[in-house]
Structures are given as structure tokens and as C-alpha cells.
Amino acid sequence: MGKSTVIPFGPQHPVLPEPIHLDLELQDEKVVRASTSIGYVHRGLEKLVEKRGFQEYVYVAERVCGICSFGHGWGYSKAVEGLMGIEVPKRAEYLRTIWHELSRLHSHLLWVGLGADGMGFESLFMHAWRLREIILDIFESTTGGRVIFSACKVGGVRRDIADSELKEIVARLDKLKKEIDAMIYIILGDETIHARLRRVGVVTLEDAIALGCVGPTARASGLPLDYRCGDEGGAYKDLGFRPITETEGDCFARCKVRLRELLQSIDIIKGCVENMPAGDIAVPVKGFPPAAEHFTRVEQPRGEALYYVKGNKTKNLERFRLRTPTNVNIPVLVKMLQGCDLADVPNIILTIDPCISCCER
Amino acid sequence: MSYLKKSPWLIHYDGSSCNGCDIEVLACLTPLYDVERFGIVNTGNPKHADIFLVTGGVNTQNLPVVKQIYEQMPEPKVVIAVGACACTGGVFHDCYNMLGGMDKAIPVDVYVPGCAARPEAIIDGVVKGLTVLEEKQKALAVSVSAGKKEEEIELAPQAVMNERQEGSGCSSR
Hints:
The complex is a heterodimer of chains A (about 350) and B (about 170).
Chain A: E1 4-9, E2 21-27, E3 30-37, H1 45-48, H2 57-62, H3 69-84, H4 90-118, H5 122-143, E4 152-153, E5 156-157, H6 163-189, H7 191-197, H8 205-210, H9 215-219, H10 236-239, H11 251-274, E6 293-300, E7 303-310, E8 319-323, H12 325-337, H13 345-351, H14 356-360
Antiparallel strand pairs in A: 1-2, 2-3, 4-5, 6-7, 7-8
Helix pairs in contact in A: 3-4, 4-5, 4-11, 4-13, 5-6, 6-11
Chain B: E1 9-14, H1 20-29, E2 41-42, E3 51-55, H2 63-72, E4 78-82, H3 84-88, E5 110-112, H4 119-146, H5 148-167
Parallel strand pairs in B: 1-2, 1-3, 3-4, 4-5
Helix pairs in contact in B: 1-4
């Protein structure tokens, strides 16, 4: 064993689209200890709730993260709706589910691309991001925005999708599904990907439970943790939802979970379109939030996010708290990095799908 | 500007944004927009880069990192602030730890508005940045010939050293 060396990783690093800093303590090529430091994208959004009105804040909540922006807008709206006792129309719930699942599709395709780039498979990166543009086109035609589209508001949604447009979306998704199938065939059958990802960064079921990980990271270790199962909001209850799990707990399993979720999301959107109820898309919101508290959850592409709101009978909320999936997955990341090769560090970091701006808010 | 005289390399850094603009910057590189066909390459190394694409309104912890990347880049360099946050602070302008605008941290040459900035706008910004880069290049060339005297004085010790080396017969050629 040689002397241990500390290698700084980040905040600016080619594989990271966002800044996070890791100190990796190495002995020869093995990482013996990793410690993270965050805060490079901290904007203090929870505090901002004191300066913005509770309806206006949806815009800020959407800008917690540019990738799962719709989910954060939805989570915040859902928490405020629960606080004020607002019943959201069924059609709005279905439309929210469609946009949220489209976000998941775009987020997972984005992840496939970044993951491929992290291991040097650049053509797959380009391919995944080409497929992602199909989803962004759907966002653009239905809402006008590509990544941040402010479709959600307290009490419902801002825009309706016409039934003819819904059919067109399904046709586009059918086309996309064929391409995704071909991509999955490449990923699951490629020897280099197997060599890079299999038995790397293993999380056992016990560790997953003990360290409290969420989302695809937990599901890849066999923990069927998916808030969509019990979600009262959205269309998940009507459609019947079963979480996707794998048992190996390595990087490859996490990759497989996300790939299978791509297909599942397409099925959920199709289910929503088939069962789309008619009616209003929003209810008017009257008055201010009462002096009470409420919390709710939303299953984001990276895992479960928790929203807590506390009102004080004024225009502004007194407190908004958001616990995001990446934040919860950092302890398990540190655990995975212990004992891995230096060359595997980017792969391990990328397979928890870190979203630093979610994490730091 | 009718054609590119140079294939610019760019470095991208997230200076405390919501990553909406960052994924749009990456979207510029991928097949739909594909700026790599113009020789524009996203490099991870500040010392290889001509253009600094930076997003976000910079918080206090990120400030030294942004400055460091800027200082590591060789001259001439162009800074493009991408997105509403980088231009003015945007939706986060009154957050307690944000500087509110990239130009409060480093000198910015081109501002690309939008939340999130669209890939077309980012590409437009880069094209505009290339004109600035050319101007800066010219300005650098002028300053070298104008300060010729200064250069000669600086070169003097070097010339002396060369003479000594030749005198001692180090050069085998």
C-alpha cells in the first residue's frame, strides 16, 4: 500500500454538468474515503417564500431545477392545495400526470446521455439526446417552453391539451418507443457497458434501507420505494401503478431501472390519454393560506421529494421546506465510492443521477 | 461576419443556475442543433478554451470558482452570460446569497437572455462572441507592435543568455 493521496474532484469537471466538490482519498488507484462539499448552486429558495406571494412562488419552485421543473411546481402547488383544502379537477390531475411523466422521460434520456458520456460512449450520448428532443418538442407544442414551462399553478393547470393533440402526442410517443427499444437493445447488449457498469458501486438492500436512499437508486437494490404507488394526486391511483425494481444494486441495475421506467412512463401517458376525463382544468383560488401546516410528496425522476408548507393567513407563506432526492442519495454515494477504482468514480457519481441544483435549492 | 476564421473551443460552467440553461447549452452540442459541425467543441479544460459560457447569478461560494476559471483562460477570451440569471439575477435576484448577475463577478462580453435561454439564442450569442473574440485578437496584436520598445528591453536578458550559451559551446548544432 502506498501513501494516501487526496484528489480534488470538481466543482468544475468535464463529466459534471453541475458543480459538486468531492475530496477523494486514494491509496494507489483505490478510493479509501470520499467526502463531499456542496453549496455551489445554493440560492436560498426556501427563504424566498417570504418575499413572493404564495401563487407567484410556483414560478420560483419550478426553477428549483431545470430538469424536473414541472415536478417541483406540482409538488409545491399540491402542498398549498392541501393546506388550503382545494380540490383540483380530475382533468387537471391527468394533465399534470402527462407533463410529469414526459419530464421523467426527458430526464431519464438526459441521464442516459450523460452516463454514456461519462464512460466515453459519445455516440450513445448524442443518440439519447436526439431522442430527448422529441419530448422537448411535445413540451414546446403543448406549453410553449422547452425546459421550464410554467404549466402548473395552485388550483390546477394553466393550459389544456386538446384531444386531437393528445392523440398526436401518443403517435409521437409510439414512434419514440421504437427508437428507445433499439437504444435499450444496444445498452443491454454492449460488452463495454457491461464491463464498465457491472459489479461497480454495489449498494445492498440493507445499505439502501439504512442510508435511506430513494428513487431509481433504491429500486435498483430491490427496495420498491416509489411514491407513485400511493399518490393521491395525479392519475396513478386510477391507472394502477407498480414500481420497477432490480436486485443487483450495481451501476448496471440502476441503468436498467431507468431504461425500464422510460417504457413505463410511455405506458402511463397512454393510459392517461385513454382515460382522460372531460371538465375544467383549474378552480379559482380565494383567500390566503390558513395558519396551519401541510406536507406532501411527489415522485420525481430522481426519487421522492418532500414538500412542507406553513401558512400564516397572509399572502406569503411562513415556511417552505423541500427535501430533494439527490440530497438523500449523497450518503449512499459516499458509501459507494469507498473502495472503488478512481476510473469508476464518474460512473458511480452519474448513476445516482445527481441533480445538484435540486440538492442545494 | 460571413465565415468562421477560427474553430472556437468553449468551456461551460454552472455559476449557481437552476441547470435549465446548462442543459440547453449541452443541447446545442447534440444532434438537433449540433454546433460541433462548425468546429465548436465543448472542452473541460479552461486553458484550452476561447469562450466561457457561464450560467447563473453566482452565489458567494461559487464566486472564487468562476473567477479562477476566468483567470485560467488564455487571452483573448470572451465571456458569454447565458440566461436571465446570468444577465441580471433573474428570478433569484433578491436571494440573500446571490450576487445577482455574472457581470458582478467577471467582465461579460455578450448577454444571452431567456429563462431558460433557448439553444438558438445561445448559438446566436456564441456567433456574436466570435466577433468580439476577433476584435480582441486584433487589439492584442496592436499592443504588441505598439509596445515594441518595451518588448526589446524585456528581451535583453534573454539575448544575453543566448550569447553566453553560444560562447560556452553548448550548442552542438
